[in-house]
Design a protein that fits this description.
By secondary structure, the chain is mostly helical. It folds into two domains: 169 residues, no CATH class; 146 residues, no CATH class. It is 72% helix and 2% strand. It has a two-stranded antiparallel sheet. Strand 1 and strand 2 form a beta hairpin. The protein starts with a helix and ends with a helix. About 3% of the residues have low confidence.
Length: 323
């Protein structure tokens, strides 16, 4: 598994950092990073849809993909209204089409469930049918309109969780206004590196040293030693960044504050990981998906970043504009 994880990282990281670097050029209108966030959000929301289906919910096919795209697109449009009119027009059309398709999917789902309930009801009242068939024909709990709306709202909340938290990456690239292009994406590059290194350190330490489990019922493979190693790795990343002068300029972040930020980011990443583990245990699955060899699904790879990125954005913004 470690070899698969390393191979996946060797392929994915250069692509991801290439897009982050490309995102810093003005002529890209910061669309490369938006593309990354939208794709990850769509895949993550679709993985949530599959997990919901395992618990008896039945959102329509591909609804997670459509919902996952909306939070980053909306936030980008709201935050960057001064951008190129052609870009904003294209985003407006994409959002409009997505919303319309979602509305049609919801209407179709309601129609399908209502018609299925009516058909089951008519079959149940047939006098010559055996009892077993009558029981099998009865509609499931929360069927019809209520069931469709319930599944829609639950999936929308999941998509907002993934896409909304991940969209903090879009705002991170504008925290440092003093730095010249194309290096404006350094806060994004740093948090991605910190989370990736922390996850790798936690995985390696947990496998090599083993020891007592952190929360065995929630995350059976996570050890206390691995958790501490992951947080320490995050601290080292931010201390090295501070020592190299990366926080010079508008930020007042010395070594001590950098270490504190590393602890906060490491703990936040752990929280995101445990939150996803709780969802997987609830859904009765080991991995959220199988898209990334050695890691599982997109949520398995980006779960820590979902909490770490907003925390990093808040701390960096506070350092840029101290209270």
């Amino acid at each position: 598994m470690f070899r698969q994880r390393a191979l996946s990282a060797a392929i994915a990281l250069p692509i991801l950092y290439g897009l982050i670097f490309l995102d810093g050029f003005p002529w890209t209108y910061e669309l490369p990073l938006l593309l990354v966030v939208v794709v990850v959000s769509m895949c993550g929301a679709e993985e949530l849809r599959h997990m919901l289906r395992g618990r008896g919910f039945s959102p329509p096919k591909d609804m997670g993909l459509m919902m996952g795209a909306l939070p980053p697109l909306f936030l980008y449009f709201y935050h960057y209204q001064q951008y190129n009119n052609v870009v904003l027009l294209g985003l407006s059309l994409a959002i409009t089409v997505d919303v319309l398709v979602l509305a049609l999917a919801l209407i179709g789902d309601i129609s399908r469930r209502v018609s299925g309930r009516q058909k089951a009801s008519s079959e149940t009242h047939a006098p010559d049918e055996p009892r077993q068939r009558k029981e099998a024909a009865e509609p499931p709990p929360h069927g019809g309109t209520v069931g469709a709306l319930r599944d829609f709202v639950i999936l929308a909340a999941g998509a907002l969780y993934v896409g909304g938290l991940l969209s903090s990456l879009l705002f991170l690239r504008r925290v440092d206004e003093a730095i010249a292009a194309p290096w404006t994406g350094w806060p994004v590059a740093l948090i991605v590196a910190a989370v990736w290194i922390a996850d790798t350190a936690a995985f390696a330490a947990g496998k090599l040293l083993d020891g007592p489990k952190l929360l065995p019922r929630l995350s059976p493979g996570k050890t206390i030693v691995g958790t501490v190693a992951g947080i320490c790795a995050a601290v080292i990343v931010f201390v090295v960044a501070a020592a190299s002068g990366l926080f010079a300029g508008p930020f007042d972040i010395g070594l001590a504050r950098a270490a504190a930020i590393g602890v906060a980011v490491g703990v936040a990443g752990l929280g995101g990981d445990l939150a996803e583990s709780a969802v997987k245990r609830w859904a009765g699955v080991k991995d959220s998906g199988s898209l990334i060899p050695g890691h599982g699904g997109v949520l398995d790879r980006f779960d820590s970043l979902l909490w770490a990125a907003p925390v990093w954005f808040g701390l960096l913004t506070a350092a840029r504009h101290p209270f």
